[in-house]
Amino acid sequence: MATLREQIATTALTVTKFPELMRRMRESRPTDALEIIKKAYEFSLKHHAGQTRASGEPYLVHPLEVALILADMKIDPAAIAAGLLHDSVEDTSVTVVDIRKEFGEQVAHIVEGVTKINAIDFATREEQQAENLRKMMLAMVDDIRVVLIKLADRLHNMRTLEHLPPDRRQTIAQETLDIYAPIAHRLGMGKIRGELEDLGFRYVDPIGYQQVHEAVEARRAAGEAFLGRVESVIRDKLKEAGITAQVESRIKRLYSIQKKLLRQHIAVDQVYDLYAMRVITRSVQDCYAVLGIIHHLWRPVPGRIKDFIAMPRPNFYQSLHTSVISDEGTSFEVQIRTDEMHKMAEEGIAAHWKYKDGPVSAQDEQRLAWLRQVVEWQRDVSDPNEFLSTLKIDLYPEEVYTFTPKGKVVVLPRDSSPIDFAYSIHTEVGHTCVGAKVNGRMVPLRFKLHSGDIVEILTQPGHKPSRDWLAVVKSSRARNKIKHWLNVHQRERAIEIGRKLIEKEARKYRVPLKEIKEPDLQKIASDYGLGRPDDLMAGIGYGKYSARQVLARLVPAGSEPVADSEIEKPGGIASVVRRVFGGDHGNSAIRVKGHGDLLVYRARCCNPIRGENVVGYVTRGKGVAVHAASCPNVIALMYEPERKIEVEWARDDGTPSAYPVKLTVFCDDRFGMLKQITAVISDSKTNIRNIEARTNNGQANIDIVLDIADLKHLENIVTGVRKIPGVHDVQRLQKV
Ligand code: MN
Questions:
Q1: Which CATH number does the domain housing residue 299 bear?
Q2: What's the gap in Å between 149 CA and the centre of ligand 1?
Q3: 83 CA to middle of ligand 1, Å?
Q4: Is there a contact between 309 and 291 (Cβ–Cβ < 8 Å)?
Q5: Catalytic residue among 57, 91, 399, 535, which?
Q6: Can you give the pLDDT at residue 41?
């Protein structure tokens, strides 16, 4: 039995909210019979009696509010009745059979659909979530009013979410952002989507919400005054041009701002469309005329003009967008669309009911076709994960859904690369990523991932991120990690260079480095306004300060530098080593046909050299191994012909490159033999890395490791050595 207090509260609803609902329905549907709504209300009143919401209000307030939201959509009385009854099967002793008996098949069917969706738990494992979404789509497609009721239900629950405990808030809000807001978006219901997103944002990320909220509030007064000025300018010009249009202004919604801040790494003041004007015209022709007027008034921002009238968005949104800069230097967006387009943008599929006197639009048909399509998919797709990925592509066109080889879903911004994927797994995987396989095939690191791709990242310990990656990555996580790494390591490198420069300068003055004391350096650092000697060294390394000037402060007055030539020793060991080994990874001399930046390496079993016929083989996890075509391993490897990949020697770009090649010379053991062999080698200006000789019974085997540029170079040496009297044979050893 309900308490007196509850009875009073319920009575209040009956005398205020319910008459309000009836009034709105009579207004929007003057010719429809509304008895069913009254009956549903009374049924709901009876069965929810004594129940309260988390807010302490009578439960009845919820179905009533849901019905009011539905009434705003000007939906039909059966759907309003179903809205009033939507929780009765779940939360009371009522069954679908009862509803069918009282209200007929149609209402029962809708209530059953909503009940089924309510039973779905979205906060479950991935596969289950997929299965659940599938169920929901099934219920939706059955009768589109099911999803409209569900959206109204969710909207009211979000509006009253503060009454729930924090962990429930978080789950419901996340689910709203993940599932309900995208569905509203897909159905073209911009208004409901906007409210769901802002409410979801507020509970999912309270701190982020607060920050954006404060940033907007701080600008609101000035922003509204600004928009007011712009609005009157536009009104005057439209009047002059004889165009009748409605002019509105708005400040961008918080969730949209937040998404932009995160996606573009910008501050609130850099958001081009923080302030926006909306001009709603009577005809498409007027839309373009207004665009001309706007561009005549203010300078458009290049690249920001979008014609969604000629090319509607996937959810059939139509509008012209442009961003312009005011005389005060503030940028703002102008959206221009017809009245019809505006209704569709705000209400989407719900506009179907609202303006049903007019013709049913082609867009409505297509929206419904999309839903039907979903059911078609569900028939064809037996794997729930596959279904999920197909569905999500459609719900979230801004994202791609990729998978690890083990089937874990990795969600990335559209056009993300394998580098983004690698960083999403682990920072270290990102840093050491050298290549990737997508669906089993090697791809370049700048490859654009698509939904459904299975991505396997190839790493190499010790590999380092490259600055070029910043131009490729799309996710903020990858960008931040790369930037951070570059900052830290560049500084370390700069400090090292700074120290070297100081050392070099010190030698010129014949000042032993150990005489330079830390406190002296500290003092100079302070003179430059720096905290520590390392900051000073980094500054020298970056070229901000000259090592000479810094050292001048350290050495006794009157010291003279000694001549540079005594110090410089160009072309020392280090430069030779660099020349031989080239870069620190991979092999730029070989490239895979059709792919720019695959990780390629020369197979150790045969060590092919430039000019040799080579074949590529896609390894499991190490990139493309390049073998000599003659390598005995190649035959064995080709058991898996799909792993073979065409490779070629890149055009010689003149940068010195050399490969170690090991030769064995079989010859007589005689005096002067070694000298003759080395003479042939040095005549061809070839570097000898190592030489070893074994003798036995007057015969010698001499192993020589040489730096060889290409096949021709090698052939010249082999021919030359073979001509030496007493040399029987020269063989190239595949292994070095
Ligand atoms: Mn409900």
A1: 3.30.460.10
A2: 9
A3: 9
A4: no
A5: 91
A6: 93
User: Is 710 tagged catalytic?
Assistant: no
**8-state DSSP, 620:** S
* Final residue before a domain boundary, out of 649, 668, 699: 649
Residues 687 and 705 both lie in one domain: yes
Concatenated DSSP letters of 566-602: GT--TT-HHHHHHHHH-SSSS-TTEEETT-SS--EEE
596 and 723 both lie in a single domain: no
How far apart are the CA of 150 and the centre of ligand 1, in A? 8
pLDDT digits over 271-287, tens only?
A: 878 899 999 999 999 99
- Does 401 reside within a domain? no
What token pair was written down for 452? 């459904």
Structure pTM?
0.52
Query: In terms of residue numbers, what domain contains 133?
Result: 4-203
- Domain assignment of residue 123, yes or no: yes
* pLDDT < 70 stretches in the chain: 1-2, 119-142, 314, 352-399, 407, 452, 512-515, 556-588, 592-599, 619-623, 635-643, 652-656, 735-736
Residue 151 within a domain: yes
| Ligand 1 center to 86 CA (angstroms) | 6
135 shares a domain with 199: yes
Instruction: State the distance from the centre of ligand 1 to the C-alpha of 172, rounded, in angstroms.
Output: 13
pLDDT, tens digit, for every residue of 328-375?
Answer: 888 899 999 999 899 888 887 777 665 554 335 555 555 555 555 554
447 with 437: CB under 8 angstroms?
no
| 73-94 confidence digits (pLDDT tens) | 888 899 999 999 999 888 888 8
Of 166, 171, 112, the residue nearest 142 (C-alpha): 112
Q: Is 90 a catalytic residue?
A: yes
Q: Which of 27, 35, 42, 90 is catalytic?
A: 90
Tokens of 156: 């009211």
